[in-house]
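Contributing new records

If you add data, match the layout below exactly. Sequence lines come first and carry their own label; structure lines follow with theirs. Keep one chain per record. Anything else will be rejected by the validation script.
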Amino acid sequence: MSKTNSGFFFEDYSVGQTLKHAVPRTVSGGERALYHALYPARHALYSSDSFAQACGLQASPIDDLAAFHVVFGKTVPDISLNAVANLGYAEGRWLKPVWAGDTLRSESEVIGLKQNSNGKTGVVYVRTQGLNQHDEVVLEYCRWVMVRKKDLDAPAPETVLPDLSKVIPAEQLVVPEGLDFSNYDFALAGEPHRWDDYEVGEKIDHVDGVTVEEAEHMMATRLWQNTAKVHFDVTVRPEGRLIYGGHVISLARTLSFNGLANAQMIVGLNAGAHANPCMAGDTVKAWSEVLEKAETSVPGVGAIRLRLVATKGGEPFQLRTEEGRYRPEVLLDLDYWALMPI
């Protein structure tokens, strides 16, 4: 018997199967420094202890997406090592801040399966939880991924498609304990625009762009311990290593600072699609659309629902073709909730 792990293939999954992922990871200021160097992230709540403390928190948390990448990376050897592509997200919620010194681990449950018509691949749906050293769930999300079959003659499983919410209701969003924007310093945050200044339907061109470098992507993917073959091994994908979708998410979120500097904390992930592959050399730009606004139970803290679109060219605010397909330059279509001072 081989002692090495070739990863799960589509026929290895069953609905209801639970997976405890290796290896727990203790996060520190090093993750924050590398995260800010790679993207570079500038939201004040995740950059400054004193700013975070003025907003009622004990210190600056680890960036919401950095925590997501750590939790996601744990799942890759069991879920997407033999993936063709990660397809989408739903029902994501950040439930507790992650602090420097916390140890994160991940657990997943298979909630759906569907073999593709070509008989060579199938789609696996999972619900993943990230837990800290106190066994508290700090974040959870669903995702679905296309995975190769190893045995093409393996019978197709019964199709089970999970019933996933298209949008997380605002009342189910969790505002971190103690968060208080009554002493919020807009000058230090970088922009004067508050929750009241945004209108549903408003679109924002974030103007700036970042060219994806092969070396930076490889460093980021290693940082999150994401071992998916399509990100590392060019023999698996001869046309080029696929840029990790989470790398594109973080780049787009960073670019959104210009126009959304006060959308401080991501607390909900409603939906997400990696519309087209991103490769080294592509220049990522981003635009956002305000989809919804809601008050929270915390005075002074508003929730804003945003569509974040990353592209590799083309004009802003162009999403789909006349046939309803994503335009070829669209890389990411992400629907999320963020917290912002009212």
